[in-house]
Write the structure tokens for this entry.
Amino acid sequence: MKIIPARRSRYIVRADLRLCPSPLCGGYWIALANKARTKCPDRKYRPRCYVASTWPGSRTIHDGALVQGGIAAGDEPGFEHLGMLIATDVRNPVGTVASGSFHRLRDVGVRCAGEPCFSIRASRPNTTSSMLVSGVDLKRAELAEEQEMRATLALVGDGLFAAGRTVSGAEGGRVFHASRIYLRGRQPPG
């Protein structure tokens, strides 16, 4: 089994709802987050790739999840072109429909006496792009109280993954407006 992209790539995963015999249908459509093209198991670049399965197969991957991993060629003779998603980290979607680009938001530990305080690094998965922002606005994601608390804990922990946009804030600040967030666990989407 040969993995095509690096295992640190982040993919947006969509369930394949077509009705035809497995493994030709029923797997997942995957696309690199923040990229226009993805290298598929047949080594061609496309807007999205079909994978027949995930490994480990026991992970719960909701439609629209943000998954870290790599793509491996299929190991069934005659079906090598279908591929398999090797999932090393799964973040399931929470909130409204994703709009904007995908970011990992992480508190860098800077504390300021005044505002704005650029204390959150917003980096874009699958790119080298990052910037410091002075705040994160979760209102547009329409989260439940427990989801907002988990998002805040992720922000100061290993990072909060979110889709959204950076907007100029008051007094020269920059605020990341999240439309959807991605959390570990089995929570249902939306």
Summary: The chain has one helix and 14 strands.
